[in-house]
Structures are given as C-alpha cells and as structure tokens.
Amino acid sequence: MDVVSDAVSAVRIGRPSSNRVxxxxxxCTRLDPYDGAGFHVVLEGSCWLLPDGGPPLSLGxxxxxxxxHGTGHVMADxxxxxxxxxxxxPFERWLDGTGPQLPRAASGEMRxxxxxYRLDRSRVHPLMAELPEVVHLPxxxxxxxxxxxxxxxxxxxxxxxxxxxxxxxxxxxDLLLVYMIRSWATQDTNGTWSAVLGDxxxxxxxxxVHSDPAAPWTNDRLAAEAGVxxxxxARRFTALVGRPPMAYLTWWRLTFAATLLRDTPDPLxxxxxxxxYGTPYALSHxxxxxxxxxxxxxxxxxxxxxxxxxxx
Length: 312
Description:
alpha+beta, globular, 14 helices, 18% strand
C-alpha cells in the first residue's frame, strides 16, 4: 500500500458510525472527548463548532471538519458564551429528542452528518500524530473534488437507504476519512508530512517500503528506487521523516506485524514472512523489544480489547 493508506489502516478498528441530523431553531449539543476521531459534514445551512480549549469555528454548507484526536466539543446554531456551553445537551440525548432546547432566537434549518471512527492509538503513524486537533476543510469551488464527491455519495446513500446501504455506508465513511486526511496533507503546506510526501526522494523510498515491506531492503536498494546516492537518501530521508531509512523500515515492519496480529488469524510464521522476518523467533524478539510484550500477548490483548499503551 502507500503511506496514507497504511497510516489509516494501522489505527482503524471496528466499523465507523454516523448520524444524519436535521434540526431548526435554537440548539446546542456537547460531544464528549472520544478515543477515536470524530467528523462533521454540513449538508445544508450553517452552525458553529466550539472545540474544548480552541477558538470557535463557523461552518457553512459543504464544510467538512475532522477531529482526529477525539477532542471534546460543542456544536450550536450560533456562537455561544460559557453559560450557554455549560447547558449544552449531551449529543445522545439531543439526537433522541429527550434533551431540553435552549431559549434563543430561532434560526434556519440545518442538516449535517456527524460520525466517528474507532482508532487504536497504541501505534499511531507520525502522519496521523501530526494532524491538528481540528481539521477544517471549507467548501471552496474546485477544492478537494474527490472529498466533495464522497460527501455527495454519502449524503445520497443515507437519504435513500437503498439496497446494499449497510455495506455502502461504512465503505463510504472509510473513503471519507482517507479523503479528509489527503485533503489536509495537500493544503497544509507547512506540515512535516506534507513536505515528506512532496519530496521525490523521501516519497519514493516510502512508496517502496510500504508497497513491499517484506522485501530485502537495504540503503543501497532504497537509494536506487529513489534515483539518488545512498548518502543523499540518508540525509534527506532522515531530515524529513525524523529517522534513518532502515530505522523507519524496522519500525514499520513491526507496526504492520501488530496490525496483522490484531486483524487476522494468521499464524506467527505467516506474519513474519509478510513483514520481512525470516523466522517467528526473529520477529518475536524484535516485537518484544519494540512493544514490551510478545506477539502472542499482543494478539490476546487486542482480541480482548485491552489497552496496548505500552507500545512506543
């Protein structure tokens, strides 16, 4: 795969969930911090997002917001002061209509899509870690056309509930996450990973590693893939990525092994072959050194849903 796909796959667990919301008048709802990522898509109308500890954000029709670190926040029909935020209705109560409405002047109808992704934060790729608390992707003509297409498809699928929608909606939500991260990476020109993905040398080496992590990569082979000398590769890759090519390769192989242990029933020997280790023992030794537990312990903990936070 490629870096963005692998970065998302390494942390994504379970199925995403979403709610299509249609509301008018005065409203104010709180979404508590979440061990995952949340998102909102404004389908019609406008509203305000007030992240915990961050400035308020005005959202209009077509705007997309990703909260990649599960930041708690308030959504409201208008800017809200501290007292109003304090009275915000919990999102679950607001959805089922059991929460009180705040007595403010009525505003127009608003439709939006609210959802969240479950994430395993025990081994977050640095690309995902670099995402800010709030990623705002405003609806601008000609900007992020693939993201707009995914939003339109998702809105249509949710409104029609046609045959096969139970499969289509989660798939479209996964696609939406990829497009949100891709759009951020292309617009955040000051970000480290925007620079990494935009650098022909580092990007070529990363493509090689992620497309075939089991290959017998060496600095010389990766330099040949990037079309530069070994010294040039080492200098540019280390400066941009933050670790030398071989160190990144080892880290990614073990991270990929953890994903396979979590998501597949493959025996350890098969996992070792897929990530470039000659024997299960060699993988187990490296895995224990990196994660502080054996592959078997990791798999058992992942199956039980326990915290894997001892990883680095």
